[in-house]
Amino acid sequence: MSKLVDTNKLKFSVFQDERFVDLNLYQFGWERCEPLHSFGPHIRNHYLFHYIISGKGILHSNGNQYQLQAGMGFLIVPNEVTTYLADEHDPWEYAWIEFDGLSVPGCLNQAGLHAKQPIYKPVTKEAGRLLHNQMMTIIDQNNASSMHLIGQGFIFLDLLVRGGGYKETNSGKRLRDFYMKEALSFIEQHYHLDISIENIADFCGLDRSYFGRIFRDTMGASPQRFLMIYRMAKAEQLLKETKQPIGKISSMVGYANQLHFSRAFKDIYGISPREYRQKHFNSPHIP
After folding, report:
1. Among 165, 193, 250, 255, which has the minimal tally of Cβ within 10 Å of its Cβ?
2. pLDDT for residue 273 is more than 80
3. Hey, which residues does 192 pair with through a beta bridge?
4. In terms of domains, do 127 and 148 share one?
């Protein structure tokens, strides 16, 4: 953990532990902005959530403009061009957390947040207060252990979901959750094999197109994309923690073709498996 800035107008920290797969934090902070202070246009690699403590501002996202004020939040999703601007007369003060992970798209979906609906309105003032307090807990405990901060991150996601007021019919939610648990269990047990989306859909007893639709609605990514992300997360761990040859790691995560594996890894992490290992391997003795 590295504290970069701590003043009476700005706190900013970077989370430096990349071991976590289901949820990881990247940076978090708080700022009391100057009038017309802006950020962007910019594209993020991860999810970024702001909660507005006081003041007003504007978000430009996905071709839309949103007028925002205290007690509201806004989500920036990966690969979207966004700009946000503090009000000239009543500039906002906000807390933010940048995060990602395998469990994140499903949680955000439950909170009713996505690229086409990035605005968060807590169902009650108390729900907003609890969310704000939890974000400040993470920001103020930046020197805590990685495990502690990830635990606090899950509490943040829980409050985000519970305070969002997004409802589904209980029967539909239970059935969908059952299918998703079946699908995730199958992926967890068979990701290292040459499995297809048809295999997963058949295991769940669903038509492939219907399965793909409810999977995307729940997890925020297609089954194909999610399977690739899951495999690359396993590969990333093997690259950092073992001396297995890259070709062997490729086959261990379900890729018979090492070239295809390298392309998939670079798509997720931005660099080749070899470059990633050179940068992140836990031992200095690997050749």
Report:
1. 193
2. yes
3. none
4. yes
Q: Is residue 287 part of a domain?
A: no
Range of the domain at 93: 2-164
Report the alpha-carbon distance of residue 258 to residue 272 in Å, rounded.
Answer: 11
Output the DSSP codes for 141-198.
TTTS-HHHHHHHHHHHHHHHHHHH-----HHHHHHHHHHHHHHHHHHHHHTTS---HH
The position carrying tokens 């807390």 is 95
Domain membership flag for residue 81: yes
The residue type of 279 is: K
DSSP collapsed to 3 states, 223-282: HHHHHHHHHHHHHHHHHHHCCCCHHHHHHHCCCCCHHHHHHHHHHHHCCCHHHHHHHHCC
Does 132 fall in a domain? yes
**What per-residue confidence (pLDDT) applies to 167?**
56
Give CA–CA dist 103/178, Å, rounded: 16
- Whether the pLDDT of residue 23 is over 80: the answer is yes
Give exposure, 17-53, as e/b (b: 16+ Cβ within 10 Å). Answer: eeebeebbbbbbbbbbbeeeeeeeeeebebbbbbbbb
Is the confidence at residue 254, as pLDDT, over 60?
yes
Q: What are 38's two structure tokens?
A: 């802006």
CATH code of the domain containing 230: 1.10.10.60
Q: Name the 3-class secondary structure at 62.
A: coil
